[in-house]
Amino acid sequence: MQQLAIFGGTFDPVHWGHLLIAETALHQVPVEQIIWVPSLNPPHKQAVAFQHRLEMLKLATKDNPAFTVSLIEVNTPETSYAINTLIDLAADYPNTHWYWIVGLDTFQTLPRWHRRHELTQMCDWLIAPRLLGGENIAQSELICKQVEHQLRNQSIIIDWQLLHIPLVGVSSSLIRQLIRERQSIRYLVAEPVRVYIAAHNLYAK
Ligand code: ATP
């Protein structure tokens, strides 16, 4: 049975934190492929056009043969939910053990996800610790255990592990803010992504 990981996100834009998380999952678990799934209509966010986010994701991931960018959410008529994505991907990749990659902040919202009972039966969770305000890895683990406990109260048992990555404070919001303030984003995103953003004048206002 093959092992694949889904990495969903808005990727507005994709940054080094995302790439580091995906690369770590490849080696730590190990999984054979990371399937990057840019959301078409993120449930809680406003984002630049899907085509721009997709193009930047392709540019950032093209050098890594274990990275695949999925267009699965293009066929999602309205809001994209994880459960729909996983059901669709499972049909395309039979005989697969699935992992879902999330940052710690996203993982904390799992107890409220749409159709979480079904979703959590279909995949295990790889959690990237995230600097949310001074946490260290031990605190990240504690937060994960709290989420696990909340889910258990809903009769949901999950399988999860923390990814061992250096805590990275970079976020897409930070990148957007730096661009608005006309500061440099070099080394915070892959170079072709930086060039793409400049060429299309993205996030400038
Ligand atoms: P924004 O700042 O706009 O909220 P983001 O940087 O969180 O964006 P997303 O595309 O929303 O980027 O993130 C996709 C996934 O990657 C989410 O699960 C998020 O928690 C995780 N993630 C993003 N950046 C980091 C980081 N620096 N460390 C750990 N996890 C991260």
Automatic annotation (TrEMBL):
Pathway: Cofactor biosynthesis; NAD(+) biosynthesis; deamido-NAD(+) from nicotinate D-ribonucleotide: step 1/1. Residues 6-177 form the Cytidyltransferase-like domain. Its EC number is 2.7.7.18. InterPro entries: Cyt_trans-like, NadD/NMNAT, Rossmann-like_a/b/a_fold. It catalyses: nicotinate beta-D-ribonucleotide + ATP + H(+) = deamido-NAD(+) + diphosphate. Pfam families: CTP_transf_like. It is an enzyme of class 2 (transferase). SUPFAM superfamilies: Nucleotidylyl transferase (SSF52374). GO terms for molecular function: ATP binding; nicotinate-nucleotide adenylyltransferase activity. One of its GO terms (biological process) is NAD+ biosynthetic process. Keywords: ATP-binding, NAD, Nucleotide-binding, Nucleotidyltransferase, Pyridine nucleotide biosynthesis, Transferase. Belongs to the NadD family. NCBIfam families: cyt_tran_rel (TIGR00125), nicotinate (nicotinamide) nucleotide adenylyltransferase (TIGR00482), PRK00071.1-3 (NF000840). Catalyzes the reversible adenylation of nicotinate mononucleotide (NaMN) to nicotinic acid adenine dinucleotide (NaAD). This is Probable nicotinate-nucleotide adenylyltransferase. It comes from Tolypothrix tenuis PCC 7101.
